[in-house]
Write a structure and sequence with these properties.
This protein is an alpha+beta fold. Helix content is 43%, strand content 19%. A hairpin with a 5-residue loop joins β2 and β3.
Length: 170
């Protein structure tokens, strides 16, 4: 079975949620709305994705897309067959470099383990905002008692996983 590029992007996006414990490996429905309904229904029809619904004791319900075992195999096969890029990632190299810088800032006590907002201003704002909106980095405000408020950025767990996948962390 040959999948189109948008369908592979959907499969890859859902695959990124497979390790997120908060969502039980399920991509929330509100995030799935960003993709074409025809492509999603095709992937569900081919048994690569399935709709999952979780109901908690408090009455909250979470509905979303989840990879089937066949979908997982298809995604791994696509990553192995992709010879032009060593890593199957949706992030550009420039994004990975930004993540790497934030990762190193988050290890420095001098900057209170965050990248200061002033230092982040040197990056291309569209790349930085893209990482922020997609959850790879997080905004942080640190209010120091008796002093000023510091603003900056830290890398999220999703961002660290992307760096590990690209083998760009030490």
């Amino acid at each position: 079975m040959v999948l189109s590029d948008p369908q592979m992007a959907i499969l890859s996006a859902v695959g990124q949620f497979s390790e997120v414990a908060k969502y039980h490996g399920t991509m929330p429905r509100k995030l799935a709305l960003a993709y074409s309904d025809e492509d999603v229904s095709h992937l569900v029809g081919e048994a690569l994705l399935e709709w999952a619904k979780f109901t908690y004791g408090c009455g909250k319900e979470v509905k979303g897309l989840r990879l089937t075992p066949e979908g997982q195999r298809q995604l791994e096969k696509a990553c192995r067959n992709e010879a032009s890029r060593p890593v199957c990632s949706e992030l550009a190299y420039e994004h990975l470099l930004i993540l790497q810088d934030i990762f190193h800032f988050s290890r420095m006590p001098r900057y209170r383990r965050m990248m200061p907002a002033k230092k982040a201003a040197q990056y291309i704002s569209s790349d930085f905002d893209d990482l922020l909106n997609r959850g790879y980095i997080l905004k942080m405000k640190l209010k120091i008692e008796g002093e000023r408020t510091l603003k900056g950025y830290v890398i999220s767990g999703k961002g660290e996983q992307a760096l590990k996948k690209a083998k760009m962390t030490s």
